[in-house]
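Hi there. Long-time user, first ticket. I'm pasting a complex I've been working with (about 222 residues overall). I'd like to know whether the download I got is complete or cut off, because the file seemed smaller than I expected. Thanks.
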Amino acid sequence: DVKVTQSSRYLVKRTGEKVFLECVQDMDHENMFWYRQDPGLGLRLIYFSYDVKMKEKGDIPEGYSVSREKKERFSLILESASTNQTSMYLCASSLLGQETQYFGPGTRLLVL
Amino acid sequence: GIQVEQSPPDLILQEGANSTLRCNFSDSVNNLQWFHQNPWGQLINLFYIPSGTKQNGRLSATTVATERYSLLYISSSQTTDSGVYFCAVGNQGGSEKLVFGKGTKLTVNP
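Hi, the file is complete. Here it is re-exported in full:
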């Protein structure tokens, strides 16, 4: 079974803090994704990566950066957290050439 | 970019009823997936179905690519079917990038 894990289920941070969200997959998938989910808006793609050290902007990259130093790990970074980044963050992965995406359990981030 | 509309936004059923969820999209696609998000937030991939028909137990899906819509059928619904159902499409050269609809929230009552 594909397993995608995220470092925290719940996280509370203060405005201006630097926040790291970690995602790890154990199936040697090339593609990894970060989404945020807000009520009434569905899921929106922040960034994705198709290989180590490679990244592409999604639909809402502003205020975020990513890092992929190892194939299994994809990190989302909030350089200076703001209250409008309070959201549910979901990580996903997929095998190159196979479009099915597998999701982690999500991290609910609250920025005060 | 491509637009994805799902209907209905909310659906309440009695256990045992059947239902049809619809996904309309504004452009041709080379990737279409249906997901179920359970009440704890976990998304599970149900179908990868850019065209044609697939069935998995009580669930089936049909995509008519030429008419730009997909349908998800749930038969003999159970309380565990409750949650939000998302349709997501991709149409770029790298079809891995998905655009999600806003979802249909399904509540199945015992």
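A couple of notes from our side: Residues 18 and 79 of chain A are 5 Å apart (CA to CA). Chain A has a mean pLDDT of 93.
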